[in-house]
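Bit of a strange request maybe. I'm writing a small parser for structure token strings and I need a real example to test against, not something I typed by hand. Could someone generate the tokens for this chain?
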Amino acid sequence: MTSLYISDAGKKQYIMKTLLKLMLLSMPILLFNCSKSDDDGGGSGGEAQATATINRNGTNQNFNATNFSGFYDANRITLNFSEYNSSTTETVSFLLNLARSESEVSGATYTIGDSHNGQVTYASIQFTDTAELFTSVDGSITIDSFDSGSVENTLLLSGSFDIELQREGVTVTTTGHFDNLPIPIN
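Reply from user aminoacidic:
Good idea to test on real output. This should exercise your parser:
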């Protein structure tokens, strides 16, 4: 019987290809989903927002998301948010994938690289001006609140992140937070 062995480099390549596919598939959702202009504040939950500071090439770049989308099921929570800068025509897109454990509670921290139920916690940032996709190598994402009572069939997530990402030896770091991101409950 022949055993199937995948090297660490092969696993990394598989994960990178999967991240790229997820990013490309989520872009249309990001571009045509909920934006601040059509958000009524989500009842008592408040307005959706995501902000971050991205250190890219030694320069800090402030990020304020204008588009939000997400996915929630028994195995994962996926958050997508992006910002389009009309003066530079650049879009910066974040993808945060959280591998769900048995139950979430406010204050749960997801560590990059942890896996549960066949899903891996990871993050990526894509810059359209240079077509660069950076993937996470270290860091964490903390969920401060899971609010499922304010908006029917919607989970409002709030939390923070501190992540290190790389692409071809170039490192990008980012810290930020998100508040009341609307995720449909499937």
